[in-house]
Amino acid sequence: MKVFIINSSGHDFSKAEQFGELVTMTRGTVNKYSITSMARMFQPFVDESSPNDYLLQSGPVVLNMIAAGMFAQKHGILNLLLWKAEADGQDRYVKRRLRV
Q1: pLDDT along the chain (100 residues), means of 10
Q2: Where are the domains of the chain?
Q3: The pTM is what?
């Protein structure tokens, strides 16, 4: 399985490694108005993805929307890893699955 990190901008994603190989889709600042370019950038990642892979929400909202839409369209399912801050400091990723 793979974990597709939508945008890597310096955060530590190591806690997501338990869910699969980490794959970075974009890095740093991305033009949030250039959605066609985003889709073109994401297409190779979508092509190599499988229905059991995860998207890790990160970066600008529009990046997450485009990536999620493309993965959902291809697989009919969306597997997300969402960051959950815990009161005891044991912050972690939680899995969520949506059939579309």
Answers
A1: 95 96 95 95 98 96 97 98 94 96
A2: 2-99
A3: 0.93
